[in-house]
């Protein structure tokens, strides 16, 4: 087996297209998972069980079914009910929804880690409930859970190749298409593997820097 640099050169335009889609799916999926995760967490702390119970059922169902099954369902079944979205939008929603059930648990742990004295002090100052959450509890909780949320960002990155099954041409999808057209698999798949390693490493460095900044 010989390494073909011409194949690498020919593949690079496809790689950049796939990288852009991968990063777009990762960024939007992460934003959605962080937002939905926080919403689930707050709803689970609602005083009435008629709010907590449905949220608990939905999040448990999503957490305990494979992401691949959810992708197929959203992309192939929903159109039969008149709900049609682009492949990328479906993939972003599936990743964001799936991982929101995990970030939900991260937020819950962060909120429970806030000292009881912080709650008592805010209550003693007669702060409105919304003010207690936005100015006292959530800033402390989110600062504590940045490392865990960062781990899920990297997990989402490694799950983006699954979007290939719903026709999204992210990095692996581009590599697969190129390989099938050229019958050259080693070069494009190696480039993709190295790219995932580098992106994961850079993401971990950025998250560590953010963590240090927030801890100050």
TrEMBL record:
Its subcellular locations are: Cell membrane
Chief place of localization:
membrane
Q: Does the keyword Transmembrane apply?
A: yes
Q: Could you tell me which residue ranges the ABC transmembrane type-1 domain spans? A: 19-207
Q: Which domain of life is it from?
A: Bacteria
The membrane-spanning stretches of this chain are 20-43, 81-99, 189-210
Q: Which UniProt keywords apply?
A: Amino-acid transport, Cell membrane, Membrane, Transmembrane, Transmembrane helix, Transport
Gene3D superfamilies in UniProt: MetI-like (1.10.3720.10)
The signal peptide here is none
Regarding the membrane, this protein is recorded as: Multi-pass membrane protein
> By its UniProt entry, which Pfam families does this protein fall under?
BPD_transp_1 (PF00528)
Task: Look up the coiled coil feature and give its residue ranges.
Answer: none
Q: Which family does it belong to?
A: Belongs to the binding-protein-dependent transport system permease family.
Q: Know the name of this protein?
A: Ectoine/hydroxyectoine ABC transporter permease subunit EhuD
Q: What's the name of its gene?
A: ehuD
């Amino acid at each position: 087996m010989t390494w073909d640099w011409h194949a690498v050169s020919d593949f690079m335009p496809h790689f950049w297209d796939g990288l852009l889609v991968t990063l777009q799916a990762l960024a939007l999926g992460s934003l959605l998972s962080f937002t939905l995760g926080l919403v689930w967490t707050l709803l689970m702390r609602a005083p009435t069980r008629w709010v907590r119970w449905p949220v608990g059922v939905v999040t448990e169902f999503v957490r305990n079914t494979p992401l691949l099954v959810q992708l197929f369902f959203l992309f192939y079944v929903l159109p039969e009910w008149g709900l049609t979205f682009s492949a990328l939008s479906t993939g972003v929603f599936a990743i964001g929804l799936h991982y929101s059930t995990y970030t939900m648990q991260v937020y819950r742990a962060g909120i429970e880690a806030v000292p009881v004295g912080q709650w008592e002090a805010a209550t003693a100052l007669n702060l409105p409930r919304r003010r207690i959450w936005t100015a006292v509890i959530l800033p402390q909780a989110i600062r504590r859970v940045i490392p865990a949320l960062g781990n899920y960002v990297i997990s989402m990155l490694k799950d983006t190749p699954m979007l290939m099954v719903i026709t999204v041409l992210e990095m692996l999808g581009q590599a697969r298409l190129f390989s099938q057209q050229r019958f050259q698999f080693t070069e494009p798949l190696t480039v993709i593997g190295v790219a995932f390693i580098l992106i994961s490493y850079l993401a971990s460095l950025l998250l560590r820097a953010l963590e240090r900044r927030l801890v100050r």
